[in-house]
Amino acid sequence: FQVKSENRKTIWNTEEVPEGSEFDDTWDPREQPEYQILFKQCVGTEDVFFGMSRKDPSTACCEDMVIKIKLPETKYSDITLDIQDKVLDLRTPKKKLLLHLPYCVDSKNGKAHFLSEEETLEVTLRLSRKFDFINFL
Which GO terms of the molecular function aspect are on file (predicted)? Predict the structure, then answer.
C-alpha cells in the first residue's frame, strides 16, 4: 500500500474533503430556517396531453430547482446568499442555512427574490447535470 501525496505531512487529501465543508460552522448559534426544495420543468401541450416527449414527472426531467426559505422578521438587506455548484449558504443576523444541494447547479445564473408579505426568499437555480442533453433534446 503506497500513499500518493505531494506533502507527506498532510493528514488528508483535498479530494477527500466534501465540497462546501469550508462553510460549515458548528459553533454558530444561529438557528436553521425552515426551507423547502421543489423542482420545476417546462412542459407544453405535447407533453401533457399527447405524451410526445420523453418527459415524466421525475426530477430527472426537471430543468430548475426552487428553494423556498422562510425568514420571519428579516429585511432583504440583511440577507447574505452564496451559491456554489453543490452548496447554498444563506446567512442573516438570526438564521443560518448551509444546504448541500441534491444536484449540481449553474451557480452563475441563478435568481433570487424576497417575498416580503410571505417572509420567504425564493431561489431558482438551473440544474447542471452531465446527461441533461439526453433528457432535453
Answer: dynein intermediate chain binding; protein-folding chaperone binding
125 exposure class (CB count in 10 Å sphere: 0-12, 13-18, 19+): buried
Architecture in CATH for domain 35-136? Sandwich (2.60)
Give the CA angle between residues 6, 21, 7 to the nearest 5°: 10
- What H or E segment, with its residue span, contains residue 48? helix 45-48
137 contact partners, CB below 8 Å, separation of at least 6 = none
pLDDT of the residue at 1: 46
Please answer whether residues 73 and 93 qualify as being in contact, where contact means their C-beta atoms are separated by less than 8 angstroms: no
65 contacts 37 by C-beta, under 8 angstroms: yes
pTM attached to this predicted model: 0.71
**What's the confidence (pLDDT) of residue 115?**
93
